[in-house]
Design a protein that fits this description.
With 347 residues, the chain is an alpha+beta fold. It has 3 domains: 80 residues, RNA-binding S4 domain (Structural Genomics Hypothetical 15.5 Kd Protein In mrcA-pckA Intergenic Region, Chain A); 88 residues, Pseudouridine synthase (2-Layer Sandwich), CATH 3.30.2350.10; 135 residues, Pseudouridine synthase (2-Layer Sandwich), CATH 3.30.2350. It is built from 7 helices and 18 strands. The strands form 4 sheets. Strands 8, 9, 10, 11, 12, 15, 16, 17 and 18 form a 9-stranded mixed sheet that branches.
């Protein structure tokens, strides 16, 4: 059987959703077969039960329409499926690490991720992650070593030094339902960011984001061409300090380092972002006093001044529209106060 197979895999990072998107074009000679049986032979490391859950939650589409678990595949059908990422061979160790929980019910939890914490185990970070803490604090998170729930409860990510709100799924149904919301871009995510330069007006950045061809650790914006993935970031000014600006960013897409790469692209790198050129004096004088002021500001946070402030989505069981808002972390707030004082003294 020769069938077209397409896999669209999101990059590892900050805002990318935790799922793979598979696309199949059914061979003309395919016999009529239940969709779960059809997909079971074609999806690695999954189970029939997982496929049925995905179908019940609208994650399986045939000819662009959501289908029921008992749908029978026909020749010529185009099938796509969205699932959480497959497990990696990393042993998850439950660790008694404090978690700041903003909201919790039987189906999900909203947690506030601190700075200097990696979300999930990976190369060089096998312990001390948010997932290690989650495994300890939450019972029976949706996790199957033999299938896709290799990062229990995770629907999305934040970078190590990005702070703010994350949603954790506590059941398989919630994980599948929330994953689809992130895939369909129906969630609301707003961030506060302190950037270098005087942002003159509100705006939108549109430009494909892909791995830098010179440095694979960072992302680059490719305004033209087919390289990278389509990305859109809307921003508006919240407070001006002349040399830096506090803005709000609203994500239309969720790409790797999207906010960081987009803002650098328009000449406004995030304050203290050591991967995108924000951890040096970008605007201002070379006077010793000013340099000391900037160094003092940098010392208050371990990395980029970026905070996931608002998170909104539909509850996977009740259908209620939920929205959560969080306060800036202490270091970020202290930086803003220092700039307010500096601006006042300079007037």
């Amino acid at each position: 059987m020769q069938e077209e197979f397409e896999e669209i895999e999101n990059e590892e990072n900050e805002e990318d959703e935790l799922f793979e998107h598979y696309h199949f074009k059914v061979d003309p000679g395919q016999e009529i077969l239940r969709i779960d049986k059809f997909l079971l032979d074609r999806l690695p490391n999954t189970s029939r039960n997982k496929i049925q859950f995905a179908a019940k939650n609208g994650n399986v589409l045939v000819n662009t329409l959501a289908i029921k678990p008992n749908y029978r595949v026909k020749p010529g059908d185009e099938i796509s499926i969205v699932m959480p990422y497959p497990v990696r061979e990393i042993e998850l160790i439950a660790e008694n690490i404090p978690i700041q929980i903003e909201f919790e019910d039987d189906f999900l939890a909203i947690v506030h991720k601190p700075s200097n914490m990696v979300v999930h185990p990976g190369y060089g970070n096998y312990t001390g992650t948010l997932v290690n803490a989650m495994v300890y604090h939450f019972d029976n998170l949706p996790y199957r070593i033999q299938d896709y729930f290799g990062r229990p409860g995770l629907v999305h990510r934040l970078d190590k030094n990005t702070t703010g709100l994350m949603v954790i799924a506590k059941t398989e149904h919630a994980l599948s339902h929330l994953a689809k919301q992130f895939a369909d871009r129906t969630t609301e995510r707003r961030y506060n960011a302190l950037v270098w330069g005087d942002v003159l007006e509100d705006g939108t950045v549109t430009g494909n984001i892909g791995r830098s061809l010179k440095n694979r650790k960072v992302m680059t914006v490719f305004p033209e061409g087919d390289y990278g993935k389509h990305a859109v970031t809307h921003y508006k000014v919240l407070e001006r300090f002349g040399l830096v600006t506090l803005i709000e960013c609203k994500l239309e897409t969720g790409r790797t380092h999207q906010i960081r790469a987009h803002l650098k692209h328009i000449g406004h790198p995030l304050f203290n972002d050591n991967e995108y050129g924000g951890d040096r004096i970008v605007r201002g004088t070379t006077h010793t006093k000013y340099k000391k002021f900037i160094e003092n500001c940098f010392s208050l946070i371990p990395g980029q001044a970026l905070h996931a402030k608002t998170l909104g989505f539909t509850h996977p069981v009740s259908g209620e529209n939920l929205q959560f808002d969080s306060e800036l972390v202490d270091g970020f707030e202290k930086i803003l106060q220092k700039w307010r004082n500096y601006t006042t003294e300079s007037d």
